[in-house]
Specification:
The protein is of the alpha/beta class. It folds into two domains: 10-66, no CATH class; 78-288. The chain is 15% helix and 39% strand. It has five helices and 22 strands. The strands form two sheets. It has a 20-stranded mixed β-sheet that branches. The protein has a two-stranded antiparallel sheet with strand order 1-2. A hairpin with a 6-residue loop joins strand 1 (10-13) and strand 2 (20-23).
Length: 290
């Protein structure tokens, strides 16, 4: 797009930063004269969401060049698959067949997406991005399988009323949860089994029947973000907010402490276990007694 091309302003909200992306879809009105370098800098600062990126790249050639294209992606609801279980089952089939056309990104629109409380089985590396944490709700959970080198990124949504654990990493792919609610799980809220590269940032885990976060079998979960909360778990009368089994670890990135993030769990059982709970400061660890 040359400097003589034109555009006018339009606002678009950013779920992650609450910044306002000021750009346009009304081309041909105002001579903006913005350079590619300028646009790259503004977009880098504002950090548009994946959904915003798709829209912005379609506005004009300048925006298309300034923003990196999304990886192979799809959206949900999907015209061919009525459930996330069906959609992810298809991803697994494609991966097993050796296809290179397996989506790397799923954008889930706002709404109630009812999986009947069942866990969606994830067997591939993928990013799952909801439109908003408050209004994009999955009735069910997620189970990370796949290979140890795989990563499953989940952001900006709510997982509610899973019949099992809300999110379960079962000795396969590592999970990376960002701005996610996990509520009213029939098992624990989040369970890590064996994998070590797991992260949680600014997540809320509440009203689980057992533990809010349980790490076992030598696994590791690293928690970051001042908006992180683990509360009102152990509704069955058993379980803790944070629990690390033998040889398992929970790392809290400073300034977080277990007292800050894990509160009001059943009977004051906010943290325990035979593993370790540590606060990480400047690449060093300070073990906290459980």
């Amino acid at each position: 797009m040359s400097s003589s091309s034109t555009c006018e302003t339009k606002t678009s909200s950013n779920n992650n930063t609450n910044a306002v992306v000021v750009f346009t879809d009304l081309l041909g009105i105002v001579n903006h004269g913005y350079s590619l370098t300028w646009c790259k800098s503004i977009f880098a600062y504002l950090g548009p969401t994946a959904k915003d990126t798709m829209k912005l790249r379609s506005y004009c050639k300048l925006f298309s060049k300034a923003l990196k294209p999304l990886p192979c992606w799809t959206s949900f609801p999907h015209p061919k698959y009525s459930s996330l279980t069906g959609l992810f089952g298809r991803f697994h089939e494609l991966s097993e067949s050796g296809s290179t056309n397996v989506p790397k990104l799923v954008l889930i629109e706002n709404g109630i997406h009812d999986e009947g409380g069942n866990s969606v089985q994830i067997n591939v590396s993928i990013s799952i991005v909801g439109e908003s944490r408050e209004h994009c709700v999955v009735i069910g959970g997620l189970r990370m399988n796949g290979k140890k080198e795989d990563d499953v990124n989940v952001s900006n949504l709510t997982l509610r009323k899973s019949k099992e654990s809300g999110v379960h990493g079962y000795n396969g792919a590592s999970m990376h949860l960002d701005n996610v609610n996990v509520e009213n799980s029939e098992g624990s809220g989040v369970v890590v089994n064996g994998s070590k590269r797991n992260t949680m940032k600014n997540c809320n885990v509440s009203h689980s029947k057992y533990c809010g976060l349980g790490v076992e079998n030598g696994g590791l979960m690293t928690i970051d973000g001042n908006a992180t909360t683990i509360h009102h778990n152990g509704t069955s009368g058993n379980g803790y907010g944070l629990y690390a089994w033998v040889s398992a670890s929970i790392h809290l990135v400073s300034p977080l402490t277990k007292e800050m993030i894990s509160t009001n769990n059943h009977g004051g059982q906010n943290y325990n276990g035979w593993g370790t709970i540590q606060t990480i400061t400047n690449n060093n660890t300070k073990e906290e007694k459980k």
